[in-house]
Design goal:
By secondary structure, the chain is α+β, with helices and mostly antiparallel strands. It is built from 8 helices and 36 strands.
């Protein structure tokens, strides 16, 4: 009897293979006649085989971390290599308030639980604290200062240890912020209301039989289970002990934003009796609610679980740092790690770390200190870590998009589609450290955004924002990490406006290449009364390295900027339309600052078949001087009034902090 090899999951192919098998056996007839009863049996066999094969394939897929798709399975496989996925993170705010009272108690305690209610976009959010906060009462006022409050509801759950059962300690609620979990265990001989507080252990290193620690693991439906020691690794719980777990369930990133709060807390005296305030309590906000985030995604678990395992809880390679920082600072969106040996000049024994938070652009000084403190548990001796501020390289486009007007009823709808696909393109492919802006891919997604689009002419611009120190003499350095395209006539560098001490009018940066076309001179200019003419105010205000993509601004006392937040936007044109985020540069495709012009394709629409009157668009950007100037007329520089600037200097980076670093 011939043996049929089933190598396909397709129903029709399975049915065909069954027929081929029966065709080789002369005892069966009518199997190839669709109207016969035998054909119905063949369909049933094929369908059963198809379902069985599909289920078997899915079961095998769910057995491996790379191919699993169900969250519970991905989490279970990650657990096998010691990885605990990040939980939801509650939005955190910092507040202050004074509590007037006539209590004779020496202290006032703000009880763990609800503290206040925040409002954003007509939606109320509860804010709680996971632990009691104690302060002294002075002159009838208890001042609670710099209190960290967490968005969410405070809950408490208790367990009684029963050694005769196969007992599990499961927190029944989903959406828990695991960083707010506080576990206390009261043994039979312990005093106090809830007993001794246990600490969370991330691994079993340095844990012995007396260590009062616990572990957590995610289980089904995004809930968490508490795990305690067995007497070898961690202290074993005694029979009859009472476990009290408190935690906050949160709305995650939806809780970001509130800055106005109304008091709803509970304050007690040193005997535990409630204290009633003598007057209404006004809350002042130091930091609005931020850094709320969702639970770690399946893709993130698949990416970081094997890398955390590979790091073996030590920070040596850049991948080690990337994985460890993600675990100790869950608000990390992207991270770049640069060894000191890669810098120019080299700084051996130094590791520079740049972090892009999920919400915002900068990591607070407190979080920086906290991250560096935790990194010491993983780093090697003799290696120093330094967390530097985020440096963003913005990519913009100036695109002329041609469309067939005979296929369009509303050109603005086509433009909206283009904007939508560009936003998707930026979030899925570009915005990250080590990101790459792929010019050919960009052209394809623009052309495919709508059937009416016939072609596009797209020019690429790169930009850095220079944060200036107002009314201070300072030097600045901007590194773009990509070579600049240079025009021998200059105007390769463009900026937004600013003012300088002892100079009138709004000024701008521009450049003139040297004879070697590798370096150039940065100048400060201002507009004259004649259109497209500019007067050179400071002829030598810095230098431009076109090959390295660096701009150095010599000593300037800048007094104001046209852009808000003391920012001067300085743009250049990349030598290659494929732009990369080099080293610690975070690449960001700025769709909102890009220019999209819709141009009617009169040839495709049939309006001008001969091409006469067809509007063409230059593939090269104009020679205007100011950033954002759409004039097609090249600018002209007039005689300079100041050859250079000489002032006492403070060297700063683009983020405005003191630095002595070099370019790359």
């Amino acid at each position: 009897m011939p043996i049929t090899k089933f190598t396909n999951l397709d129903f029709d192919q399975i049915k065909s293979q069954i027929k081929s098998y029966l065709r080789a056996n002369s005892e069966f007839k009518d199997f190839d006649f669709e109207g016969s009863n035998f054909s119905v049996l063949i369909d049933t066999l094929a369908y059963n085989t198809y379902i069985t094969a599909f289920n078997s394939n899915m079961v095998v897929n769910e057995s491996f971390l790379d191919s699993a798709t169900i969250r519970e399975n991905v989490v279970s496989l990650a657990r096998n290599i010691g990885y605990v996925p990040r939980s939801r993170s509650a939005a955190k705010a910092k507040i202050n308030f004074s509590f007037p009272t006539n209590s004779t108690s020496a202290t006032a305690t703000l009880s763990a639980g609800l503290v206040c209610v925040g409002v954003v976009e007509n939606t109320n959010f509860l804010f709680s604290i996971p632990n009691d906060i104690v302060t002294t009462i002075n002159n009838g006022v208890a001042n609670f200062e710099n209190i960290d409050i967490f968005q969410g509801t405070f809950l408490r759950k208790q367990f009684v240890v029963d050694g005769s059962l196969d007992q599990r300690f499961i927190l029944d609620n989903s959406f828990i912020d695991s960083s707010t979990i506080v576990v206390k265990v009261k043994g039979l001989s312990d005093t106090g209301t809830f007993g001794r507080e246990y600490s969370l252990a991330s691994n079993i290193l340095n844990i012995d039989s007396t260590s009062e620690t616990y572990l957590i693991q995610e289980i089904k439906d995004e809930r968490y289970e508490l795990l305690f020691g067995d007497g070898y690794f961690g202290k074993k719980l005694e029979n009859g002990a009472v476990i009290t777990a408190t935690y906050i369930i949160t709305d995650g990133k939806e809780g970001n934003g509130p800055s106005n709060f109304s008091y709803s807390g509970r304050v007690v005296d040193d005997l535990g009796n409630p204290i009633v305030p003598l007057d209404d309590i006004t809350i002042s906000t130091s930091i609005s609610a931020q850094n709320g985030g969702d639970i770690e995604s399946i893709d993130s678990i698949k990416y970081f679980a094997p890398r955390i395992y590979a790091s073996q809880y030590r920070a040596v390679t850049a991948r080690d740092y990337e994985a460890i920082i993600q675990s100790i600072y869950p608000n990390t969106e992207s991270v770049a790690v640069v060894g000191g040996e890669e810098l120019d000049p080299p700084e051996f024994g130094q590791v520079l770390i740049s972090i892009k938070p999920k919400n915002g652009d900068f990591v607070s000084d407190f979080d920086k200190q906290n991250i560096q403190s935790k990194l010491k548990n993983y780093s090697l001796s003799g290696i120093n870590q330094k967390i530097i501020d985020l440096k963003v390289l913005f990519v913009e486009i100036d695109s002329a998009i041609y469309y067939n007007s005979s296929q369009v009823s509303n050109v603005n709808e086509v433009k909206s589609k283009v904007t939508s696909v560009l936003n998707t393109f930026s979030t899925s492919n570009i915005n990250k450290f080590g990101g790459r802006f792929k010019y050919s891919k960009l052209g394809q997604i623009i052309d495919n955004a709508d059937v009416s689009i016939t072609s596009n002419i797209t020019r690429v611009i790169i930009r850095r924002n220079m944060k200036v120190l107002l009314n201070q003499s300072a030097q600045y350095e901007l590194c773009y990490g990509n070579a600049f395209k240079k025009n021998a006539g200059g105007f390769n560098i463009k900026s937004t406006g600013f003012t300088v001490a002892n100079q009138s009018g709004t000024l701008y940066f521009t450049d003139v290449p040297n004879s070697d076309n590798k370096m150039g001179t940065l100048s400060v200019v201002k507009e004259s009364s004649t259109a497209n003419e500019f007067i050179v105010v400071i002829k030598s205000a810095g230098s431009v390295d076109y090959e390295k993509g660096e701009i150095i601004v010599n000593t300037l006392n800048i007094t104001s900027t046209v852009q808000p937040n003391n920012i001067i936007e300085i743009q250049a044109f990349p030598d290659s339309n494929d732009v990369i985020g080099l080293k610690d540069l975070y690449l960001s495709f700025s769709v909102s600052d890009s220019t999209i012009n819709m141009v009617k394709d009169t040839i495709s629409s049939g309006e001008q078949i001969s091409g006469v009157g067809y509007k063409t668009t230059s593939s090269y950007l104009n020679g205007s001087l100011k950033r954002g100037d759409t004039s097609t007329t090249s600018a002209t520089l007039l005689t300079s009034t100041t050859s250079s600037s000489t002032m006492n200097t403070t060297t700063t980076t683009s983020s405005g902090t003191s630095s002595s670093g070099g370019g790359y």
